[in-house]
# Entry
Amino acid sequence: MNNVYTREEFNQRRLAAKQAIRSDSIFAAVTSVFVGLGSLGFLQWINPILTRPERIGESLATFGFFIIIVGWMLIDLQKTSHQAVLTYPQCNTPLEGDTERIAAATSRCKKCGGLVIAE
Ligand SMILES: [Zn+2]
# Structure
């Protein structure tokens, strides 16, 4: 027999998941902006020193670095939201978006109809 959430536990875990995802999203957004600005500043600084062919290589390398940082943060954000999200006790379906709102409103799983929240 799998556990069913209490209403309080359900609400707390739902809130904790949203906060974890929100703080990770803010971190990713702010870091992307700073890394982007840092990359542009670096190119601005290095370009006068380099010859034209070197500039192209340097620009591509800097852009690649930016893409790697942003990509890594997006993967991390995906991981955080995957770990933070609640799952239905009976069928392990992730509680996200509509399925989460339906569970909150009806206390039941959208997919299998199993009880999610014991009132
Ligand atoms: Zn289910």
Q: What stands out?
A: The helical segments are 7-46, 52-84, 97-106. The beta strands are 5-6, 117-118.
